[in-house]
Specification:
Elements lengths: L2 H5 L3 E12 L2 E12 L3 E5 L6 H9 L9 E4 L2 E2 L13 E3 L12 H10 L4 H4 L9 H17 L15 H13 L5 E5 L12 H13 L2 E5 L3 H7 L2 E6 L2 E7 L4 H16 L1
């Protein structure tokens, strides 16, 4: 998406006044930002800066302080349990992919559809789709997204047999199959070699092309962030200390890197 079109895009994800405490330890303090449709926002900072904690607050794994307001496409989700947020068209990938061993690529991707179904269906462990027709439709949607993510040749293969790069594609297909509006990427380059990391911009391009999602991307690889994201937020000690778009501008890129390095050294 071009910068001009991004500026006029609707706001998809709104995060306001997110504070998080674990006992007497403050983990997040008044973190807030907005993400537009088609925008890729890099979330960077040293270990312990609060990046993963913030993502877990957005997805409902952690419960922030009552001041927090989190909305997807104008609908507040901060009061919802984690398993209901997928139905609000919020999706995520995982740092370690969290694929189910022994299942095929198609079955793993279908799980992304189960997560956005009404909770009563999730309790039907043996027939989560409710009917053969529903299961057939879900399998067709999964195979469509598998093809879009370049996995068609592996659709029936067990995920255990795939190299890391292909498992990352499966994780992305599972996140995109529900057609989310907001996508959270948790260190997709983790565990990859320097050469393999070239795959990440391609995966993000797939997400933008297929769903035009608003994307928040946690990453430690600064080169990937500044070359791929349109905007960067730098976290330090639970606060957002830098937030700017226009990473194509060398001055903005340099300021973002400086903020990151200062946070790393303090």
């Amino acid at each position: 998406m071009t910068e001009a079109s991004s500026s006029s895009a609707p706001c998809i994800l709104e995060v306001e006044q997110v504070c998080l405490h674990f006992g007497g330890l403050r983990v997040l303090r008044d973190v807030g930002f907005r993400v537009k449709a088609g925008e890729v926002v890099g979330l960077i900072g040293p270990n312990g800066a609060g990046k993963s904690a913030l993502m877990n607050c957005i997805t409902g794994l952690y419960q922030p302080d009552p001041s927090a307001r989190i909305s997807v496409n104008g609908v507040r989700i901060d009061h919802l349990p984690a398993h209901e947020r997928g139905a609000c068209r919020l999706s995520r990938t995982f740092q370690h992919a969290n694929l189910i061993p022994g299942l095929s690529v198609t079955d793993n991707v279908m799980i992304g559809l189960a997560s956005c179904q009404p909770p009563r269906l999730l309790r039907q462990i043996f027939r989560p789709w409710g009917s053969r027709a529903a299961e057939s439709a879900a399998r067709e949607r999964a195979r469509h997204m598998i093809a879009r993510c370049g996995l068609e040749a592996h659709a029936d293969q067990a995920v255990d047999d795939l190299p890391l790069g292909l498992r990352r594609r499966v994780d992305l297909a599972r996140a995109l199959v529900s057609e989310p509006l907001a996508l959270l990427l948790d260190e997709p380059a983790s565990g990859m070699s320097h050469q393999e990391r070239a795959l990440i911009p391609e995966l993000i391009a797939i997400a933008q092309r297929e769903c035009n999602v608003g994307t928040v991307w946690i990453e430690h690889d600064l080169d990937l962030i500044v070359s791929t994201a349109q905007r960067v937020i730098v976290m330090h000690h639970g606060e957002a200390i830098f937030d700017a778009d226009g990473l194509h501008d060398p001055a903005v890129r340099s300021a973002a890197i400086d903020a990151y390095m200062k946070g790393t050294l303090t």
